[in-house]
Amino acid sequence: MILLVISSIICLQAYEIDVNTFSNYLDVQNRHLHLEWLLNMDKKYINATSSYSFQVVGRQINKISLDIYKLNIYSTYLKNGVLLPHTIDSPYADSDQGQRLNIQLDRTYYRGEYVELSIKYSIDSKSRAISFMTKEQTSTKTMPYLFSQCEDANCRALAPLQDTPAIKQTYTATIIYKDTEAKDVFMSADESKEQFKILNKPQDEATFTWKYKYFIQKVPIPSYLIAIVAGNIQKVPTSTGGRTFLVSEPDKLAAYTEELKEMEQFLLAIEQYIGPYTWGTYTLVIQPPSFPIGGMENPLLTFANPSIMTGTGSGLAVTIHEMAHSWFGNTITCVNWANMWINEGFTVFLERKASLIHYNIPDDIKLNAIIGNTSMYQDMLGYGLESNFSSLHPDTTGLNPDDSFSEIPYEKGYQFLNYLESIVGEQDFKMMLRAYLAQYKYQSIDQQEFQNFLLRYLQEQGVDDYSTKRYKILENWNRWVYSPGLPPVFVDFSTNKLTQALDYSNAYITADGKQPTNWQDYKTFLHSQKQIFLEDLFKKAENNQLKLTVVEQIDKDLKLTQENDFELKFRWFRAILTAGDKNRFMQIADFLGAVGRGKMVYPVYRALNKLDHDFAVQTFRSHETFYHPIARNNIINILGLKDSFIQ
Ligand code: BES
Ligand code: ZN
């Protein structure tokens, strides 16, 4: 009896549960997924079959529940063809988290047994995971285009899945497409030499030429890392003999390759800090401008918004960041979205370590941490400084975890790791992170497990002053993780480059519409200093200190309205709209139709909406079909429009 109790305690899954999945993942876990998709790019739907190898990990089961979101489910059946009855219910009245698909099994299955089953279903343009674009919406205008975006909880709109980062599975896929509708297709997987058995052939094989492409992802991954892109796209290496590749529409390929020629060096810089890249190759897809975020770390196939291609290399931190996810996020994964900093905080930490190795500008790292801290603070104010969304452990029960997306897991997580590093020491901290990766690779964990590991590691290594270090680590830990608002300990990133950027904006305010003597300093600024200058202008505008005459003088000197670098341009537009400037509405409307990256368009819409709601709505309506469904929904909320999702 006592033995039984002890063994059940040992077996108990000690990690936090995921409140954002409807699946019974604690009892049964998928080990392998196979997708067969027949793409109808023009008609915007996908005929799909998904096949699974579920392993029972609880005592026994007689049903399997999966997450779905606006998928059309046709049939569920066992590998031997026996149909299984299924039902669909919505545990929450609002459908933001989707529905639950319940599959009744033919018998009871016990711990250790496998259940192999398949689902026939289709995906249409209601799917929030896939953006179907017409050829007119692409750059080369020759073929339709589609891309997926699954993080956080959108892969349930791609296939019935255990949509939780807690579960990892390998996957294979067969993608069938018309040669007139796509030049090529890529997934977050390797191309497979093996051709998988086709379950459903295209019906009109005589009329069209269909192409077949086979993929395999041998590393177990969480379902939010499944990804696909198809269209008039092409893949080229970014350097000779390297591991890094680039995918985009052919008209942009040459310029992008030129700007990304250091990609291999980025990977080397990250490896220098953290150890070898184990995934094989690394491919970056530059998506159309409606891609709703800066970058997404799909394994072997990062997606990025073209706004990272500024022509000057100033946007490439996103590439380093997404590469760094190959270790933190894709190798070790957070067990639920409340622990997102286990992905993002660690990734920002590694990104900045690698940037320091590659560019060797310590001030730039500090300035980026300051910029990050400012946006984090703005996000906290948005949620409320007392809201648990302002902590490193947001509670998303009953909500779409996307709603808790903010800079907080990135920057508070980064500051926490810096703080821990300052206690442990740089060298020991680096070795600890390497050991942590070796220990938990291909697993999903929560922050408590990280703490356990950190302490165990330091003790086992016999580091100096272990007990003092242990005390310091634990002293503020829970406040770092659970308390809302600013970190419990101030982490100092100040540098005289910060003062210089702030002096510069002050000089413009003091010059009161004339040209300050130091106006040419801007040209020598680091990119991060330029951002800080523009952030400061915004702050001044909020305090009614930015006069329109000053706006005119700055624009005359620095030509910011004509700026090609959107990281600067969006900050400029936000600042001048907040100052009340109505002289650049046309350029602002153009900008809002040229990029669909949330980080850049939401702040501008917010400022525009405050100044002139009608013009904001009119601008939105004129670009509505350009935006990704996720961005479109967010803008609708910002503008206070009551609108239903485009069906
Ligand atoms: N994993 C994120 C993107 C993400 C997070 C998508 C949460 C959906 C939900 C990605 O790695 C990321 O952080 N992208 C940033 C850029 C980065 C340099 C901070 C972005 O898109 O802005
Ligand atoms: Zn990230």
From TrEMBL:
Keyword Ion transport: no
Cofactor note: Binds 1 zinc ion per subunit.
Peptidase M1 leukotriene A4 hydrolase/aminopeptidase C-terminal domain mapped to chain residues: 496-639
Active site residues of this protein: E322, Y410
Pfam family, one: Peptidase_M1
GO CC terms in record: cytosol
Transmembrane segments: none
Keywords: Cytoplasm, Hydrolase, Metal-binding, Metalloprotease, Protease, Zinc
Subcellular location: Cytoplasm
PANTHER family for the chain: LEUKOTRIENE A-4 HYDROLASE
Protein name: Peptidase M1 leukotriene A4 hydrolase/aminopeptidase C-terminal domain-containing protein
The organism of origin for this protein: Paramecium tetraurelia
